Amino acid sequence: MNTTPVRKPRENRERIMAAIREAAIAEFSENGLKGTSTQAIAARAGLTKPQLHYYIKGKEELYEELLMSVMSDWKGMFDAGSTDPGKVLGDYIRSKLDQAFDKPEISRIFTREVLDGGKNLAKFWPDSRARTREKANIINSWIARGLMQPVDPYVLLMSIWSMTQFYADSAVQVQQLVNPGQPGFQPDREALVKELTALVLRGCGIPTA
I want to staple 142 with a disulfide (CB 3.0 to 4.6 A). Which of 89, 102, 109, 147 is the partner? Predict the structure, then answer.
């Protein structure tokens, strides 16, 4: 007996949900939650509005899902189990830059939400604060052991976030200032990782390779 047709409804649903998610990412990245309509998401996904609502309740659940995804992605980037600050910070910078280049729209959704006051992040802040304190405590432990110079761990972390997310949030500015004749231009990622890592490590008094 051929059982292939049994799998098709699930595969079709997964394909449609992927299209809806990609459409939502694009719309929210460009227009934010308030400026995005379910009609716009449906049209971008190649669906009618009634078809869209067969798969989702509303734009708010999609928006929350995307915010959860970016927070989840960022959560595991800092290796709390390593005792080598140079490696941890270098890997962290690389991971943050990879996210900025590979998923820029997701980063812009988060940044736009913060600029709008961050009320849709209210349920995420407690966990985010706890994880940031954990990182700060690890950095302070490195300082106490003489593995790096004294720095404010919060300033260090937020500086890394600013330097890396800039390439997602301000991609147009990067292109216009560095290579205005090439739409979609991206800097050499590997060279950028090395430059930013060396900059951060030198500022922390950590030897660079």
Answer: 147
